[in-house]
């Protein structure tokens, strides 16, 4: 690799890394506060308000959350929804995006118009609820997987990624007798791994955060995903039930402030852990080279 | 490409044209089969419930159901446009949305380009991982952190100002600071997340192009301008057009949390208004009417932007 | 070469299609169909017998078929009641029902309610938190719910329901639901006892004394740390203490009857007096100056930096626990009401929080209605009330020297949904109150408050303009009030805001309330 080693270039490198480093620092400080807070004692949080490192280490918040007997079950539900849902999303989105990326397709425009129209207009919560109910999906996990199976936004962008692939590759594959599914599987998908990884992440995060549709479509609380549980814990820690003077009117004391923060840590962690594994797909130009070679 | 050929062929008469189309359809049968699940999905989950839009012209009563609720024509719209707050809401929403597009929209692109210029892959991955974390924090958390920093009673920033002998600033109450805060919070929360899509687009750039450019003596800025930017240009344009479709969606939760008695005159937007007058009161028809208004504005903007993009020789979204 | 590869790709593709099909199959296997209810399908004969007899017998014949019913209600806890648990079992046994409870997280309750209502698949009873929402009122008027008022006297427990509370939940003068009982006037003043002691002060009895206490809390270093770092009264954006302070200054609870007409609180002279009092506190820095942006003012007293808090006295216990974590000697005391220019008074509420309504679409016959009412009647038996609120002795709690000790066994906690079982309770008049001195003090204060409560005579009435524009109109008044307290507008500015309120719909609300009131009280 030929390297550009002029003074201006090096100065730019220094400035660039300083700027990005500062930006990263600004964005991460509040998360450190949340992390620190989740391990802090109530006394320290109440007295100092803002801390970046707890002087006294406490696991009380995590003990409180993990004492919930249904935590593991709802975590399981969420993992299932995330894996199965993302798989469905990616398969259906790619299947639809590829034909739309092909300019020789008849009716391409009206179909795209139909997709884009749904981004602007929607029937709203109640009519969608009724459709889900009529399909018999109430209380079934299908109600969390199918109503959002394709995001129009993601579809349009994946389509445009597909369109940008060098056309020559497809042409030569076709001349060699490859069928359309063959081209999609062997050429388009491998070449679009950065995009597939990106949109898998987008979809997965969406499933991970499933909350509203679960409350709406699932009556059986045993099937609730983890976000429902975590939000209930947050409400509890805000003394939410106190306003209604319910539970243990006699001696109810809301759990520690740190619980709220621990909830955030728990609900963010898995996604953060997954990210670095996806990152390797963003490595510049690697795939293109390998396929061509 | 085949289409072009068909058009330019002078001998094409109607009959053979139709035959060609059938041949194309037959040849592309796999493509149609691939489209099928998606089309079924959109019809079932998006178009079947679409009748809900008509609620805007009815007085919807959940107990009566959709069919039995009475038609009221444009009543909800005239109530909305006739509301003494309408023009204030429109102005506030418009300004906040414009701030968002002017100040927030370009940032993920810039940061993605800067990340792309980092020479060490380790730095790049590390910074990328850090800056995307805030996306996962709820607005409640972000607003409460903003309070910890900017309140006049022991807020870190104001304590700093006071320590240096300055006068404390009512950041959170002063209407003049409201839009700055809303936009800055969005930048803080979503910039890192927004870069992902552009990084994915940048990953598709052929490295051979850079090497060739370097051979020709192009410096880094020229490489950026002539190779990198063109590679992500269509992604930028598509995202911008799609963003315009939701132009009037300023988001509800963040603004709702940042609103207070002193900044309401600049802070109240369609989304917060429709929440307090429509949704929380169970006035579905009215909420739907406001939503429909926003959608129509979005529709107009999307088509206008798409035409504009096409005029400049871009693909657009259609 | 490429052709060969093509064949391989095909195999790959079919293989992955096979995998996809397999996954779909697995998904199908996981999807259940339980949970949905069919409250309307119960055996009519059984429910006929299940209905309570007017004589008020307690025991049921053992062979009766349990009535199949379902209830949708709010949940505030991460765990819902275990349907296999002891409490659930006893509930079904006593009420002779086959019970399905649909728990909905409190934050999404209204969405779920409207979707459920719209889909037409209603449970036998639904909890409605705000019966004055336009769509509830309209559905009541179109006959969607049972009017249960006339039936109540036939039930030994439900017959005890208070007329005041029933009147408050009524719509057009009729009762359409079973309210969930709460004390009538629950607001009061909570103060740091140890600060009072440090300064040699006693609990204030009047507004003036309270003002002196606040001054001492701010200026005389009540926590004795040598620093001027204390606040007198903790307040927040949505004023916690406003209603109480207004009542103490002689103002009404939200609305009052004046010269035969409805009149909102903000038109009363007491409102201006109360604003001036708050303004004095603000000007002299006796409340937290950033109250207009504070979401949860209670944190200030929890964190031991503020000395008083005016709100539901139920908060006292939690505040003391929090304060003790920072200052081990910290303690909280209460004052039920402060004396002002008028007699001692306290702002009254409705005496309830939410009501169970019974839809005619799922409970079709009068016999079935009686079975549902029987459920709520039995739930109000003394032992059932206590079971729902406190749990069962030896399972959810034990008594050690008369002190209530909650279990830590998570299985036992799940039995009563970590306390969600209380959501089912209707009457609460036979509950044994456990807990420390603060809890008993609180109950005493509530009883005192009930005697001096002023209530809103317009509570049962409906104003269409209020339903439509109420929230926007309230904002005009609240914003002006906060600006007045902070000194950003003067009395003229306040009057402008009131005029705007009147013009934008306030006058219409006054008129509508007055008319509705006159229709019932000619």
From TrEMBL, chain A:
InterPro entries listed in its UniProt record: MetI-like (IPR000515), MetI-like_sf (IPR035906)
Pfam families xref list: BPD_transp_1
Domain ABC transmembrane type-1 stretches: 75-278
GO biological process: transmembrane transport
Database matches in PROSITE patterns: ABC_TM1
Principal subcellular localisation of the protein: membrane
Sequence intervals crossing the membrane: 12-36, 77-101, 113-132, 144-162, 183-205, 259-278
Subcellular localization(s) per the UniProt record: Cell membrane
Keywords: Cell membrane, Membrane, Transmembrane, Transmembrane helix, Transport
UniProt name for this protein: Carbohydrate ABC transporter permease
Organism encoding this protein: Paenibacillus soyae
TrEMBL record, chain C:
Gene3D superfamilies recorded: Periplasmic binding protein-like II
Keyword Lipoprotein carried by entry: yes
Organism: Paenibacillus soyae
Annotated protein name in UniProt: Extracellular solute-binding protein
Keyword NADP: no
Region of interest called Disordered, as start-end residue ranges on this chain: 33-66
Alphabetic keyword roster: Cell membrane, Lipoprotein, Membrane, Palmitate, Signal
InterPro entries for the chain: Bact_solute-bd_prot1, SBP
Upper lineage: Bacteria, Bacillati, Bacillota, Bacilli, Bacillales
Superkingdom field: Bacteria
Signal sequence range: 1-28
């Amino acid at each position: 690799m030929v390297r550009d080693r002029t003074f201006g270039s090096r100065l730019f490198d220094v400035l660039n890394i300083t700027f990005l480093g500062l930006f990263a620092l600004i964005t991460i400080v509040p998360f450190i506060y949340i992390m620190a807070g989740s391990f802090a004692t109530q006394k320290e949080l109440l007295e100092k308000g803002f801390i970046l490192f707890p002087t006294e280490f406490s696991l009380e918040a995590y003990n409180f959350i993990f004492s919930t007997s249904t935590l593991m079950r709802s975590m399981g539900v969420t993992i299932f929804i995330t894996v199965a849902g993302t798989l469905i999303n990616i398969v259906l989105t790619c299947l639809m995006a590829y034909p739309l990326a092909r300019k020789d397709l008849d009716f391409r425009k009206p179909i795209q118009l139909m997709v884009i129209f749904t981004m602007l207009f929607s029937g709203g919560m109640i009519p969608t609820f009724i459709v889900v109910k009529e399909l018999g999906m109430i209380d079934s996990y299908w109600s969390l997987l199918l109503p959002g199976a394709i995001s129009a936004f993601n579809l349009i962008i994946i389509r445009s990624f597909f369109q940008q692939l060098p056309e020559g590759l497809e042409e030569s594959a076709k001349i060699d007798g490859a069928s359309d599914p063959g081209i999609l599987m062997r050429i388009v998908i491998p070449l679009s791994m950065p995009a597939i990884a990106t949109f898998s992440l987008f979809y997965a995060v969406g499933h991970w955060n499933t909350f509203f549709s679960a409350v709406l479509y699932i009556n059986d609380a045993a099937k609730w995903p983890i976000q429902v549980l975590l939000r209930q814990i947050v409400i509890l820690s805000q003394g939410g039930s106190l306003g209604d003077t319910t539970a243990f009117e006699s001696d109810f004391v809301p759990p520690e402030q740190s619980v709220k923060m621990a909830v955030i840590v728990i609900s963010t962690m898995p996604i953060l852990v997954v990210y670095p594994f996806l990152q390797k797909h963003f490595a510049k130009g690697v795939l293109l080279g390998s396929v061509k070679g | 490409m085949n289409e072009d050929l068909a058009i330019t062929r002078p001998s094409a008469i109607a009959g053979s044209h139709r035959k060609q189309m059938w041949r194309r359809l037959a040849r592309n049968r796999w493509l149609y089969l691939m489209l099928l699940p998606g089309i079924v999905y959109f019809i079932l989950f998006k178009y079947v419930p679409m009748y809900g839009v008509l609620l805007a012209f009815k007085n919807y009563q959940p107990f009566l159901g959709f069919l039995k609720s009475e038609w009221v024509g444009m009543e909800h719209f005239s109530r909305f446009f006739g509301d003494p707050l309408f023009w204030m809401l429109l102005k506030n929403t418009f300004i906040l949305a414009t701030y968002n597009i002017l100040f927030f929209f370009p940032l993920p692109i810039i940061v993605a380009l800067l990340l792309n210029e980092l020479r060490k892959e380790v730095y790049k991955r590390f910074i990328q991982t850090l800056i995307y974390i805030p996306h996962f924090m709820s607005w409640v958390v972000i607003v409460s952190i903003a309070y910890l920093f900017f309140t006049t009673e022991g807020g870190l920033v104001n304590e700093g100002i006071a320590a240096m002998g300055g006068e404390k600033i009512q950041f959170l109450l002063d209407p003049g600071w409201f839009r700055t805060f809303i936009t800055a919070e969005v930048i803080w929360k979503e910039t890192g997340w927004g870069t992902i899509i552009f990084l994915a687009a940048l990953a598709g750039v052929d490295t051979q192009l850079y090497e060739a450019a370097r051979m020709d003596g192009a410096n880094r800025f020229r490489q950026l301008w002539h190779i990198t930017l063109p590679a992500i240009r269509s992604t930028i344009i598509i995202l911008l057009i799609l963003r315009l479709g939701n132009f009037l969606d300023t988001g509800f939760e963040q603004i709702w949390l940042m609103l207070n008695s002193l900044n309401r005159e600049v802070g109240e937007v369609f989304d917060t208004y429709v929440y307090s007058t429509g949704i929380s009161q169970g006035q579905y028809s009215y909420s739907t009417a406001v939503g429909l208004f926003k959608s129509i504005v979005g529709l107009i903007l999307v088509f206008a932007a798409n035409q504009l993009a096409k005029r400049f020789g871009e693909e657009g979204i259609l | 070469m490429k052709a060969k590869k093509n064949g391989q790709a095909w195999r790959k593709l079919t293989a992955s299609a096979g995998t996809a099909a397999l996954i779909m199959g697995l998904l199908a296997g996981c999807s259940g169909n339980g949970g949905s209810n069919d409250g309307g399908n119960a055996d009519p004969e059984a429910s006929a017998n299940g209905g309570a007899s007017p004589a008020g017998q307690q025991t049921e014949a053992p062979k009766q078929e349990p009535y199949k019913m379902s209830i949708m209600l709010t949940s505030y806890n991460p765990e819902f009641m275990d349907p296999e648990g002891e409490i659930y079992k006893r509930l079904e046994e006593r009420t002779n029902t086959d019970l399905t409870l649909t728990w909905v997280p409190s934050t999404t309750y209204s969405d779920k309610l409207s979707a459920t209502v719209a889909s037409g698949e209603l449970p036998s009873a639904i909890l409605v938190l705000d019966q004055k929402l336009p769509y509830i009122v309209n559905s009541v008027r179109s006959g969607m719910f049972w009017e249960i008022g006339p039936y109540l006297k036939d039930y030994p427990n439900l017959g005890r329901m208070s007329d005041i509370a029933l009147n408050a939940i009524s719509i057009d003068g009729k009762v359409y639901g079973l309210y969930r009982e709460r004390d009538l006037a629950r607001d009061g003043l909570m103060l740091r006892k140890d600060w009072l002691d440090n300064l040699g002060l006693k609990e204030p009895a009047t507004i003036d004394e309270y003002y002196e206490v606040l001054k001492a809390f701010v200026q005389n270093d009540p926590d004795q740390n040598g620093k001027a770092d204390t606040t007198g009264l903790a307040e927040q954006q949505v004023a916690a203490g406003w209603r109480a302070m207004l009542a103490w200054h002689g103002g009404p609870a939200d609305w009052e009857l004046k010269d035969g007409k409805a009149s909102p609180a903000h038109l009363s002279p007491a409102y201006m007096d109360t604003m001036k009092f708050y303004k004095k506190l603000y000007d002299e820095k006796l409340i937290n100056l950033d109250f207009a942006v504070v979401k949860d003012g209670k944190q200030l007293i929890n964190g031991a930096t503020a000395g008083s808090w005016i709100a539901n006295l139920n908060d006292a216990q939690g505040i003391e626990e929090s304060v003790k974590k920072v200052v081990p000697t910290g303690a909280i005391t209460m004052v039920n009401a402060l004396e002002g220019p008028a007699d001692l008074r306290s702002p009254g509420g409705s005496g309830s929080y939410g009501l169970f309504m019974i839809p005619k679409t799922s409970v079709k016959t009068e016999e079935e209605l009686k079975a549902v009412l029987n459920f709520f009647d039995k739930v109000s038996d003394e032992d059932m009330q206590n079971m729902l609120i406190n749990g069962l002795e030896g399972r959810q709690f034990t008594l050690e020297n008369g002190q209530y000790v909650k279990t830590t066994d998570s299985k036992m906690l799940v039995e009563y949904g970590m306390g969600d079982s209380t959501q089912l309770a209707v009457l609460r008049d036979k509950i044994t109150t456990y807990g420390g001195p603060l809890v008993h003090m609180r109950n005493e204060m509530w009883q005192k408050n009930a005697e001096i409560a002023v209530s809103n005579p317009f509570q049962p009435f409906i104003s269409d303009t209020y339903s439509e524009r109420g929230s926007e109109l309230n904002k005009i008044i609240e914003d002006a009030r906060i600006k007045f307290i902070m000194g950003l507008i003067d009395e003229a500015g306040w009057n402008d805001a009131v005029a705007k309120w009147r013009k934008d719909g306030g006058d219409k609300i006054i008129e509508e309330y007055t008319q509705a009131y006159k229709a019932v009280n000619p």
